[in-house]
Structures are given as structure tokens and as C-alpha cells.
Amino acid sequence: AFRANYDIIIGTVRMGLYVGTILSWLIDQPFVADVTDPIEQIDHLPSPIYKFLFEFEHVALKMADEAMFVYRSSYTSARRHGIDGNKVENAVNYEKFNDPDPDIIETAAAELNEAGLDDRPIAVYIGGLTPVYHIESILEAARRLGTVQFLFIGDGELSETVAAAATTTENVYY
Predict the structure, then answer these.
(1) What's the pLDDT score for residue 66?
(2) Reduced to 3 states, what is the DSSP secondary structure of residue 116?
(3) How many angstroms separate the Cα of 69 from the Cα of each of 20, 77, 88, 117, 169?
(4) CA 171/CA 93 separation, integer angstroms
(5) Which run of H or E residues covers position 19?
């Protein structure tokens, strides 16, 4: 990382922001901070660690040449701490998914079938398996909605909980 010739460094929270800030400072290159999730996502950590990361994140955002915030709460909190930045939308290009190639649909259907899913409705969760995303509530919904299949794709501190549910709940897949 130190030998490359970067024009700019972009770091996404959490680790990308922390490492990007330090790298940017060490090699004296512009840094863009991308805050896609609120800091409260990690408030379950032991208090001293959370407080340290909270403060470090605010220092990193103040040092950034530019900061972008997806959540309004993160943007508002940053402004209260004297951090300039821009509120941006979560970028999903709807047109890219609006009219998928039939071969891709066929391949996806085959992979879902191979994983044990059938023609019943499917709810797909893709993302972090952490409490902030209400994974336990989604699993409870799966238990109550036996006619809907729930497919979880992701990793995080609740991975084992989801894996266990996939072995004990007929309509949960991981």
C-alpha cells in the first residue's frame, strides 16, 4: 500500500475509514470518507472500545478532504461535531436490475434450487448479520411465515444464530 502511486484514497466505514485516514496522512494524499452506516452500529462493543472508535471516527472525518453520509442521522451528528460533508443517497442503479438477462435468471433459479429453495415466495436478506439490522426479528418473521422462504447472505456476529435457525427452521436458508 505504501509503494503505490495513489491520486486519491477512498475509505468506507468502518475499517476503510480508519486505515484510509492513516494511509492518506502517511503518504500525503487526498482522502474521501464514505459513511454508509451509523457509528451506533457498533455501540454493542465494550464501552472503552466504542468511545475510542467514536472519537477516532470523528477525527478521521474532520481530517478527510471530503465526507459523504448515507444516513441522515450520521450526517446530522457529523454537522453537530463540526464536520463538513454531503448527504448522499444509497447508490443502487435500478436500471441495471430492471430487465435482467434471461440466462442470469435461469442460473440464479438453478442455484437457489440446488440450495434447497423451491417455487414458494423468497425473502432475501443480503448484508451484515448484526443486531442493528434486526436479524432476530427477521428470523421471528420467518418462523411465523412458513409459506415464505428466507435466504440470508452475509456475515457478522449473528452468523451462528442464523446458521442455527437454518438447521432448525424449515424455511430459513443460510
Answers:
(1) 95
(2) coil
(3) 16, 10, 6, 37, 37
(4) 30
(5) helix 15-27
How many angstroms separate the CA atoms of 10 and 32, rounded? Answer: 5
Q: What is the DSSP letter of 140?
A: H
- SS3 for 21-82, per residue? HHHHHHHCCCEEEEECCCHHHHCCCCHHHHHHHHHHHHHHHHHCCEEEECCHHHHHHHHHCC
Q: What is the mean pLDDT of the chain?
A: 91
Instruction: Read off the DSSP letter of residue 156.
Output: S
Greatest CA separation found in the chain?
A: 56
Percent of the chain residues topping a pLDDT of 70: 95
Contact in structure between 9 and 20 (CB atoms under 8 Å): yes
Q: What is the pTM of this model?
A: 0.58
Distance CA 174, CA 166 (A): 6
Find, among 62, 12, 20, the residue nearest to 1 by Cα. 20
Cα of first residue to Cα of last residue in the chain, in angstroms, is 35
Cβ atoms of 31 and 20 within 8 Å: the answer is: yes
Query: What is the spatial order of strands in the sheet that 66-69 belongs to?
Result: 9-12, 31-35, 66-69, 86-87
Half-sphere exposure of 116 (CA within 13 A, CB side): 11
